[in-house]
Design a protein that fits this description.
With about 425 residues, the chain is of the alpha/beta class. It has a domain of about 200 residues: 3-Layer(aba) Sandwich (Rossmann fold). It is about 35% helix and about 15% strand. The protein contains 16 helices and 13 strands. The longest helix has 15 residues. It starts with 12 loop residues before the first strand and ends in a 5-residue tail after the last helix. Bound molecules: pyridoxal-5'-phosphate and zinc ion (ZN). The site of pyridoxal-5'-phosphate has 17 residues, from helix 10. This is Threonine synthase. Its cofactor is pyridoxal 5'-phosphate. Its EC number is 4.2.3.1. GO terms for molecular function: threonine synthase activity.
């Protein structure tokens, strides 16, 4: 048995490891390798992971901490700084499948989390790590949902927060963040400008005790996304789906869900199975999809436009790894334009009762496009990830989603409007 880590206590993690050169580090607040500047990831004791059983997980809490044995923090309740997200519905989308001519489709609906996006998962793991690492303020560079989640987690924990967003986000993202009362800095620039500013701030004395969840403690943040893979496997009765469609901004979510599927099979939670991973981007910001199409893994940064603002990262940190996951599994990337995204939101709503934000519209529209192009198998069991809530991006569909009839409160008027023969 390895002894407990002096800072993190009981954990299957043994340190951080560079994805490029495999240099190893202790569990510290560091996101880039000192040797080669490659991204650092959490490094686990394989034997500790392999000891995790289905029964252990099933007897755990009704939230993402049931997978604590596969995460760097949170083995004990006192280790957690969390809104306890997770165990969101896996919805059988039979009407959607029928309409698209598919055999079996599920929507993994992560809009059901406490702040209504999958970002609660990554923030719960990162904030818990921040507590262990001695930080007393939470921060982030955000396209909206991350800011919302960080501000809420800080409020619950009694921590200070200061979050940074591009100036032109949706009202639904700004208000749901500001209401928690922390610092909210609108930056005159794109997300990529916001991210650069935050990187610079981490180097200053004033921000020395501030954990930017997706910058200086990014390796911990990234691990939270794995729970979206474990959960789908468990909800399918410890089986892996045959195909998944996942929206990509930085590409981290996609990469880590793929990693989670591999871990499930490696440690025996599921049988070995090949999951084809498909990535979804918006045409207004498609650097990963474009690199995939050009058959390269060199990402050319773009200046984002379009309504899928939560996905508007022009220089995606995990882009090359997302391409690697998609290629290795025989999947593909595709992109959809704003009209297709609006159509995707309405198609999902009409057939499942789920109102997705624009990123979910990107997933559903991409599913449809990949089917139309014959790149996705209509007969394979497919899980589509909805990562956020439609109420935060009302403007996207407001023009097409008003009353179907307007009448006076009389039968005569109802008849005139065609409601009665
Ligand atoms: C952040 C975000 C994503 C993409 O996450 P990455 O890990 O950066 O690829 C997808 N959907 C929603 C709603 C998000 O907020
Ligand atoms: Zn390295």
């Amino acid at each position: 048995m390895p002894s407990a880590h002096p800072v993190f206590g009981d954990t299957p993690a043994i340190g951080l490891i560079c994805r490029n050169c495999q240099a190893t580090y202790d569990l510290i607040a560091q996101h880039a390798c000192w040797e080669c500047f490659g991204p650092l990831e959490v490094n686990y004791d394989a034997a500790a992971l392999a000891r995790v059983t289905r029964e252990q997980i099933e007897s755990g809490p009704q939230n993402l901490w049931r997978y604590a044995g596969l995460l760097p923090v949170g083995q004990n309740e006192s280790d957690r700084l969390s809104l306890n997200p997770g165990l969101t519905p896996l919805v059988e989308a039979d009407n959607l499948a029928r309409e698209l001519g598919m055999r079996k489709v599920w929507i993994k609906d992560d809009s059901a989390n406490p702040t209504h996006s999958f970002k609660d998962r990554v923030v719960s793991v990162a904030a818990s790590a921040a507590g262990k690492l001695g930080f007393d303020r939470l921060a982030c560079a955000s396209t909206g949902n991350l800011a919302n989640s960080v501000a809420a987690h800080a409020a619950r924990a009694g921590y200070e927060s200061i979050v940074f967003i591009p100036y032109d986000l949706e009202t639904g993202k700004v208000v749901t963040t500001a209401v928690y009362g922390g610092g909210l800095v609108a930056v005159n620039g794109s997300y990529d400008d916001v991210n650069r500013l935050c990187s610079q701030l981490t180097e200053t004395d004033e921000f020395e005790k501030t954990a930017f969840v997706n910058v200086n403690i990014r390796p911990y943040y990234a691990e939270g996304s794995k729970t979206l893979g474990y959960e789908v496997a468990e909800q399918l009765g410890w089986r892996l789906p045959e195909q998944v469609v996942i929206p990509a901004a930085s590409g981290e979510l996609l990469t880590k869900v793929h990693k989670a599927f591999e871990e499930c099979a490696e440690i025996g939670l599921t049988d070995q199975a090949k999951v084809r991973v498909f990535g979804a981007q918006s045409a207004g910001c498609s650097p990963i999809a474009d690199a995939f199409d050009a058959d390269t893994d060199v990402i050319t940064p773009v200046k984002p436009t379009g309504i899928a603002k939560s996905l508007n990262i022009g220089d995606p940190a995990a882009g090359p790894y997302a391409i690697e996951s998609v290629r290795a599994t025989g999947g593909a990337f595709a992109k959809v334009d704003d009209d297709e995204i609006r159509e995707g939101i309405r198609l999902l709503a009409r057939t499942t009762g789920i109102f997705a934000e624009t990123a979910g519209g990107v997933s559903v529209a991409t599913l449809k496009k990949l089917l139309d192009e014959g790149r996705l198998d209509p007969d394979a069991e497919t899980v589509v990830y909805n990562t956020g809530e439609g109420l935060k991006t009302l403007d996207a569909v407001a023009a097409q989603a008003g009353p179907t009839h307007t009448v006076d409160a009389s039968l005569k008027s109802a008849k005139q409007a065609g409601l009665l023969d």
